[in-house]
Amino acid sequence: MSDLKVYEIISLDGPSGAGKSTVAKLVAKKLGYKYLDTGAMYRAVTLFFLNKNVNIQNDNEIISAISDLKISFDNNNKIYLNDVDVSEEIRSIKVVNMVSKVSSISAVRKSMVSLQRAIAENDNYVVDGRDIGSVVFPLAKYKFYIDASVEIRAKRRYEEEIQKGKDITFEEVIDSIKKRDEFDSNREDSPLVVPKDAIIIDTTNMTIDEVVQKITDVVFNKKSNE
Predict the structure, then answer these.
(1) For each successive 10 residues of the chain (226 residues), what is the average pLDDT?
(2) 15 in a known ligand binding site
(3) Does residue 103 fall inside a structural domain?
(4) Are 48 and 112 in contact (CB under 8 A)?
(5) Is 154 labeled as ligand-binding?
(6) Does the annotation place 20 within a ligand binding site?
(7) E strand map for the chain
(8) pTM of structure
(9) Which CATH number covers residue 19?
(10) Which one, 72, 85, 153, 200, has the greatest CB density within 10 A?
């Protein structure tokens, strides 16, 4: 079976804070597709590395650690690391601060791409991330690139953090997003790019519902013309 099979996939790529995950979940619900949280997968790997004190500069340690981990989801989209629910733990600050470095490791990305393809092999999925339409599912049937201004993305992320009770300033959030943009766009393995044939949606002045409607309209129109 080819790695480049045409999956029944809706891919949503874009930078941090663009609203990909929120939109992806709502699109999946509206269309009756499943949702694959690739960000949670990379955070689970990061948590495992932290718990095992893996030296991310040591290739042998990385490869050994990857061979010892198992990631799975239940029907409620909770994520399990070696059969333990880590849905909350992967949101911890220690994981958030480390995930960019871990997710940039080639061996980690190769392992996760393989797993993401295997999960989505036999069903319809909405998948969000930073390399979904460009690397993981380059022949996905529907591709979108979700973007917004840095200021709007920072505002959204800041409001999310405040609602969670986090003690953080807007300046810290916007600085973090700018650094993440720089890192994601310039990393050697699977950098953030606009995938070929992707429809670009600038959500700066759009509501979540408007973005969801635009994506589902595109999908319905394409299906009706097949």
Answers:
(1) 64 92 95 94 97 96 96 94 95 86 94 94 92 94 96 91 87 89 85 94 95 96 85
(2) yes
(3) yes
(4) no
(5) no
(6) yes
(7) 9-13, 34-37, 71-73, 79-81, 84-85, 125-129, 142-147, 199-202
(8) 0.87
(9) 3.40.50.300
(10) 153
